[in-house]
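F.,

This is the one I mentioned.
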């Protein structure tokens, strides 16, 4: 339209002043903030609702009379700017105030919404989307923001007392919390939409461990129980029934950017759709209670923190990925469960009570700045995988057996259907599995490999594998694979005198990192290993007694169904040189060292092999009795 007006101005000079006015209007609209161009609150005439506007722009909504304590109000637009708006509940005394937008206009809340008169629960429903950017709610118990379509379910649960519950059917649109955020003191805040985006701080400042922020994203069917009082912080008003229409999301259902955050007494995230579920780069804090997450889609946390004062519970029907993320349950337990893989990179999971992690594969890895850590300060850690468990340059630590968890067999329990790998890298940190005051139990359907790493227990260490157990040290081979390289030279001097030079050089190579030797150790307890083959190459298997009670611990039992091999590794170089000319002289040098291949116990060592037993350049040292039973 602007171009057409300009064309007319070009042909008719007398229209130029009008052209300038149009241009100024267009420029003003382009420069105006988003909220300025949106209409305020306007009724659609469908309910007995009226709106008045004060000189300062503040709007007051005289809400419709109630049915069973619910006031239903419909609007063609519902937007609140910095002047704010009031829902007048004086004389109406609604327990729940419903505001529905029936047009195609989204809602923008940039100011305060307060309830006049008696406190009420508030529902704002707009199927076109809702943005809150600097909004707040006052004199409200619970607030539900939703892009769902509203219907009512009328019942009489108690004789003579009718009840009108609110049903929200959600399958479209987005709720956005903008950079200016949303801050209120509420019993609870519910965000119910196909997608939820948190681009600023979302804070529920009501100081109660039951006060919550809850996001329900994806296709859903929700019922709100309006019989719940706006002053009742003991009972939940929301019941979720997953939508019957299966959906796979194309974008993350809940997306929290680095500038976004969630803070409340409790925090709950729910995703009903499959595909991308939750992505968060912003901090989340359940400051007084639990943090819970339930997602049918994949979950990704990166460069952020997630803290629960009490319990931390993540249930994911897909993969769970943590990158440079800190998860902590200050006084409760932590549970991470995924149907897919669980991956931690440069991340930590800490809890004061129990830790349970389960998935189709569990992997801990270090990054350029930090190792991954799973640690429990007062009880045990349990990792259960239907695939592999991999710990590279990271720490898995428990204190003692969790007596409340039947899966806990000690301070640390690792159970994998596949393989278990505990590994250090030459340029990274040690891979450590550590039971501070309890047993370490490792069970694998496949093999268990401890490579340049440590499995340590201050009580007993048990490793049971369907495949092999390898306690090995990385070693770079020397020239000629460590075999001697001989040389000999003969020449005649002074015609009749022979000059001879003979010798040899040996290069055994070097360890990848001399500070990262492999240990399987029970500091005050026994070591038990059972596997198809057991290879202790350059490593040490150690069991020590309790110095206060020498009869406790200090024994090693190794059973190999096929082969048991313990072998030391030579490193360094050696040379020998002999020269003869009239007389003979010799010289030699060596910095050769033997590393590992040691099985050492203060008490007994029992070695059993149904196949072969080999000890090469290593040794066994038993304080009491050494028993070998090998097939050859």
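My design for it:
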């Amino acid at each position: 339209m602007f171009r057409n007006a300009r064309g007319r101005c070009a042909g008719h000079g007398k229209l130029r002043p009008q052209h300038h006015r149009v241009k100024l209007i267009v420029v003003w609209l382009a420069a105006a903030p988003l909220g300025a161009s949106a209409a305020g609150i306007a009724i659609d005439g469908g309910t007995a609702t009226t709106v008045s506007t004060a000189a300062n722009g503040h709007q007051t909504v005289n809400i419709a009379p109630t049915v069973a304590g619910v006031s239903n109000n419909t609007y063609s637009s519902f937007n609140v700017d910095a002047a704010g708006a009031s829902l007048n509940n004086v004389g109406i005394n609604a327990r729940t105030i419903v505001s529905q937008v029936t047009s195609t206009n989204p809602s923008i809340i940039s100011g305060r919404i307060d309830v006049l008169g008696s406190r009420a629960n508030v529902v704002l429903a707009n199927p076109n989307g809702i943005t809150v950017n600097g909004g707040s709610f006052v004199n409200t118990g619970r607030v539900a923001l939703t892009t769902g379509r509203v219907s009512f379910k009328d019942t009489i649960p108690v004789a003579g007392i009718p009840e009108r519950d609110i049903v929200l059917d959600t399958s479209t649109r987005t709720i956005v919390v903008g950079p200016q955020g949303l801050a209120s003191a509420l019993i609870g805040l519910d965000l119910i939409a196909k997608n939820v985006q948190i681009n600023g701080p979302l804070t529920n400042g009501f100081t109660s461990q039951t006060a919550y922020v809850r996001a329900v994203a994806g296709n859903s069917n929700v019922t709100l129980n309006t019989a719940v009082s706006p002053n009742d912080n003991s009972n939940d008003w929301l019941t979720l029934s997953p939508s019957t229409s299966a959906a796979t999301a194309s974008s993350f259902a809940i997306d929290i950017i680095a500038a976004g955050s969630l803070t409340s007494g409790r925090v709950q995230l729910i995703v009903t759709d499959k595909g991308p579920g939750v992505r968060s780069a912003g901090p989340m804090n359940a400051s007084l209670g639990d943090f819970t997450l339930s997602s049918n889609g994949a979950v990704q946390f990166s460069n952020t923190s997630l803290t629960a004062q009490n319990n931390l519970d993540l249930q994911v029907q897909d993969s769970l990925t943590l990158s440079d993320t800190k998860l902590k349950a200050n006084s409760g337990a932590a549970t991470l469960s995924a149907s897919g893989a669980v991956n931690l990179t440069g991340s930590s999971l800490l809890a004061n009570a129990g830790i349970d992690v389960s998935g189709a594969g569990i992997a801990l890895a270090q990054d350029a700045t930090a190792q991954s850590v799973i640690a429990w300060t007062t009880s045990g850690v349990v990792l259960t995988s239907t695939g592999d468990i991999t710990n590279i340059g990271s720490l898995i630590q428990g204190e003692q057996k969790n007596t409340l968890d039947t899966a806990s067999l000690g301070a640390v329990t690792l159970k994998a259907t596949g393989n278990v790998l505990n590994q250090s890298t030459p340029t990274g940190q040690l891979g450590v599995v550590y039971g501070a005051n309890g047993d370490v139990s490792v069970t694998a359907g496949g093999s268990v490999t401890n490579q340049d790493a440590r499995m340590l227990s201050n009580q007993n260490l048990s490793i049971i594998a369907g495949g092999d157990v390898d306690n090995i040290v990385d070693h770079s081979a020397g020239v000629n694979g460590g075999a001697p390289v001989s040389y000999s030279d003969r020449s005649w001097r002074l015609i009749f005198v022979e000059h001879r030079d003979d010798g040899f050089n040996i290069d055994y190579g070097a360890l990848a990192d001399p500070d990262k030797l492999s240990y399987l150790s029970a500091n005050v307890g026994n070591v038990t290993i059972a596997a198809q083959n057991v290879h202790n190459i350059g490593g040490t298997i150690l069991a020590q007694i309790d110095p206060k009670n020498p009869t406790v611990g200090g024994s090693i039992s190794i059973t190999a169904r096929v082969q048991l091999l313990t072998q030391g590794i030579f490193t360094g170089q050696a040379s020998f040189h002999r020269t003869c000319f009239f007389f003979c002289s010799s010289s030699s040098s060596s910095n050769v060292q033997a590393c590992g291949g040691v099985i050492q116990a203060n008490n007994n060592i029992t070695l059993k092999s149904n196949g072969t037993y080999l000890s090469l350049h290593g040794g066994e040292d038993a304080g009491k009795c050494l028993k070998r039973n090998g097939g050859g």
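Confidence is low (pLDDT under 50) at residues 1-37, 622-627.

Talk soon.
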